[in-house]
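Sequence, structure tokens reproduced for absentees:
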Amino acid sequence: MIGISVDPPERNLAWTKQLGLPFPLLSDSDGRVARAYGVWDPTWNLAQRVTFIVDRARRIRFVEAGTLAIETGRTLEALGTLARAR
């Protein structure tokens, strides 16, 4: 499991530590992944806050539009639900 953010690597590392994330947070510094998932906002030149859970077959299993705060609890809950459904 990984996370991806358009923030720079050092900020992602700080977020990973601060939030106690059980996975690495990679940097999409050029926004290529955000564009591929349709969440790049060209007006503000940044990615919208959206969480996707994508399975190994590359199917999107969970999507949640974010708020100003990071909602890791719901994401981890969705991961647990999907894992139990296997």
The mean pLDDT is 87. The longest strand covers residues 60-65. Residues 72-84 form the longest helix (13 residues). The chain has three helices and six strands.
